[in-house]
Amino acid sequence: MSTTIMVPMRDGVRLATDVHLPDGPGPFPVVMERTPYGRAEASRSEITAANRTPAARADIAAYFTRHGYAVVYQDTRGRYGSEGVFVKYLSDGHDGFDTAAWLIQQPWCDGRFCTMGLSYAAHTQAALGCLDPPGLQGQILDCGGFINAWRAGIRQNGAFELKQATWAFKNAGLSPEALADPVMKAALASENIRDWFARLPWKPGHSPLRHHPDYEAYLFEQWTHGAFDAYWQQLGIWTAGFHARYSAVPMVHMSSWFDPYPLTATENYIGLKQAGKGPQRLILGPWTHGDRSDSCFGDVEFGPNAPLDSWAGDWRAYRLRFFDHVLKGVPLDEPPVRIFVMGGGSGRRNAAGKLEHGGRWISAHDWPLPEAVPTVFHLHGDGRLDRAAPPAGATPLTYDFDPAHPVPTIGGALTSLEPVASGGSWDQAEGPAFFGCEPPYLPLSSRPDVLAFQTEPLTEPVQVVGPIVAELWVATDGPDTDFTAKLIDVHPPSADYPRGYAMILADGIQRLRYAEDPSSPRLRTPNEVVKIAVTVGPIANLFLPGHRIRLDIASSNFPKFDVNPNTGEPDGSARRKRIAINTVFVDADRRSHVVLPLTSY
């Protein structure tokens, strides 16, 4: 049985809520999901390896009601059937709390509930958990739950993640306002978002979102608010600041290497565990965002063990086991941490034309792996990456960074950028399928504004599992710039790949004005030497003999991130561009390096 109820919030706004009840008198424990994507719509991620058709939420509800759970789906404020004005992320904590308070008072609820949901529906869970609502017993945060949206998810260490722009544009067209206004809907549909990405930066009132002023307003608020101050320390986008008061309940944190949220999953796992907030579990797969039942991501095949289904049965079965454990006391025979270590495959091109990189699941008692040994690999002026320290007096490496010609994004950990860019792993070579690439379509490492550092071909396997940070000594001739770091597994030349294959594993970025104190940005004195830390991982990969470990340093990664104009103008509102002369130091006194956590294989 299903019923739709308009549940009132503290300010009188009512949120559309579907209640699915099992047969029988009740009361029942409850599973709840709060989503902006339509409480009755099919979710693209509700598939299994055996059944590729996305299941309707009603079908998922029926699965859980058959096992004795009431299921509640709710549209977030200002989306689909719910009243109010949509403001992304910032109303979800209090709305979730008010819904929980209503929920546990219903006669069909036994006073206990768990939450589930992917992406935005994971963000709503974390916002709710921050307020320690009555009745909450457990949560499964699938690819979301912002540890710190300034560091990852909205911005990344100052740079703006442009998936927020494509998300806003797509979802403005699906908003209640557009559905009620044919002119607004037609106006949004007439815009070509790829064309608009060639015309950045946008201006308020003169962007593809100008037809929906509310969505344009929240986007520019995020885009232009650069400093990590009280704005970024709000409920809904800063779980780290609420760990001490978070609900002490069992939790599952899940993300993947080509998802935007592995840092969120790992740091929430660590922070909540340290705060003593209940048993924490962590799952890290090789997938793109929400694609947990697939095995190929981008141009790379990770093998038959890559889907979560290979060990969980499928995602529904895993969630049921967790809810049965939390709400019914059924033992859960699962390790605290499951990690997919990429690598170990043949390196051949399979019948589908994909690189066979392979991989396997490992279990662990904690994250980071206690046995991992942080190992320093230094950057050398001749392009080497190795454990030997650089010589004294080594000449620094300098390049011109032209913001009018940024380094194009070719896969990686990203989502919601379609149709401009897609996530997954790809050979780091330009091609016509990637936004911003131009003939003659050469490797990115051939660009003069990309510094590539690589090991000699490995003579034995090297397994890297854990968080990865590149520590760089840098300078620029102007007031501001960016530095990016990208970790790559270089497959050797073969019959299938005669030029080799530079497979992206992870990347990160640091906006220089925020290097010392994100809450108090400081423009640089020209050629001032600064030590910065670029968060590249976490990651798990096995580098096979004959492969090379490579670290690429540049100053742009577009369209994943907005491009720094190098002028020092306020974030999101620059009107000028200048070519920056950027420098990376590689001498004994200024040892630029990357720290790789090595584990035994």
What does this structure look like?
With 601 residues, the protein is an alpha+beta fold. The protein folds into 3 domains: 2-150 and 242-364, Rossmann fold, CATH 3.40.50; 155-225, no CATH class; 373-408 and 444-599, Jelly Rolls, CATH 2.60.120.260. Helix content is 17%, strand content 27%. The chain has 11 helices and 28 strands. The chain has helices spanning 57-65, 92-103, 120-129, 163-173, 176-180, 182-189, 193-197, 213-224, 262-274, 309-312, 315-328, and strands at residues 2-8, 14-20, 28-35, 70-75, 109-115, 136-142, 155-156, 159-160, 251-258, 280-288, 296-297, 300-301, 337-342, 355-356, 359-364, 373-379, 385-386, 397-401, 451-454, 462-466, 469-476, 482-491, 501-511, 530-535, 539-543, 548-554, 580-585, 593-599. A 10-stranded mixed sheet has the order 1-2-4-3-5-6-9-10-13-15, sandwiched between helices. Strands 16, 17, 18, 20, 21, 24, 25, 27 and 28 form a 9-stranded antiparallel sheet that branches. Helix 2 crosses helix 3 (120-129). The mean pLDDT is 97.
Describe the protein's topology.
Blueprint: E1 2-8, E2 14-20, E3 28-35, H1 57-65, E4 70-75, H2 92-103, E5 109-115, H3 120-129, E6 136-142, E7 155-156, E8 159-160, H4 163-173, H5 176-180, H6 182-189, H7 193-197, H8 213-224, E9 251-258, H9 262-274, E10 280-288, E11 296-297, E12 300-301, H10 309-312, H11 315-328, E13 337-342, E14 355-356, E15 359-364, E16 373-379, E17 385-386, E18 397-401, E19 451-454, E20 462-466, E21 469-476, E22 482-491, E23 501-511, E24 530-535, E25 539-543, E26 548-554, E27 580-585, E28 593-599
Parallel strand pairs: 3-4, 3-5, 5-6, 6-9, 9-10, 10-13, 12-14
Antiparallel strand pairs: 1-2, 2-4, 7-8, 11-12, 13-15, 16-17, 16-28, 18-27, 19-26, 20-25, 20-28, 21-24, 21-27, 21-28, 22-23, 22-26
Helix pairs in contact: 2-3
